[in-house]
Fold:
Amino acid sequence: MPAGRWRCLDGGRASGTPGGQDSERASRTREPCGGALSCRAMRDGSPPPVPASRRSTPRQRVLVAVTAAIAGVLAAGSIGATLACGGHPASPAATGPRPVGTPPPGRVVAIGDLHADLDAALATLQLAGVADATGRWTGGTTVLVQTGDLTDRGPDSKEVIELLMSLRQQAADAGGRVVPLLGNHELMNMMGDWRYVTPQDIADFGSVDARRAAFSVDGSLGRWLIELDVAALVDDTVFVHGGIGERFAALGVAGINAQVDRALHGQAPPDILGEDGPLWNRALVMAPEPLACAELGRSLAALGARRMVVGHTPQPDGRILSRCNGQLLDIDTGISPYYGRHLAALEIVDGDARAIYPEGTADLPDP
Structure:
């Protein structure tokens, strides 16, 4: 990519960009990210990234330093322009998978990107039979995995995050489990990249300052988000927001989570949260299937899993995508109204996967 271009790795539907894919914008100069992420030539009028000078707590300053380090790596060229207008940190090592484990009935439900729409989130949870219209847990011993991107594009970031917080506790009390995973949009919000925040969402917090405080790493939302895992292994299925390529699969699930945590605290270089990292990777969904399936097979072997479930890449037909004979399932069906309000959930019982839609269920290939 020439020095005068950058890629905004957000799946943003910029003018002339295929829906749901990353956008590139041209500029005479690349705006340095410095201590706060920035991207001037963007499609909407969302608030600009929060200036680094307004961040004050020690843990917040760590994130600012990490972001500045990212900019340095980008200038050097490894992940280059790909992160210059995105937002992420990066990588060390660790051990093997950390299974979430499944309660006796063995029912696992997964839902994809919710993008700050409470009504659609509640409707999807009801569709999956794990919560009612008031947000009360009804899933019993079910394991519910949410694959990230609770924020942006809609008006209800706070309510959707607080819903997942509540459900996690309610499920634990009932013998079930809720596993919320970190998405790229949560990270962007914590790092002050507000390109896809809506005016309604800001109004819901009362002010820009109140929203900024809530998403800070010491804030009511940020301190919860920063502790989320990026990947989870439930039985023999690995869940992640974007995708796990062969490079990072070698670390194992626990290693991936450890690297991200260390990066967020300024203790690792900024590559695991780059374009080919688990929060942003679209290759397994979008690359030609023979190539994608070959890499997927190697990744799954390294992860000790037989199937990978991802979000992040919205499917225009509103259906769960199966690739590689069921080894990869993309559950980002576009649940939020921004993408058409295509409600869907994935259910796995005793290794058998099926899609749940408002009109009924559909069997999915099992690897």
In short: Residues 1-104 have pLDDT under 50 and may be disordered. The radius of gyration is 19 Å.
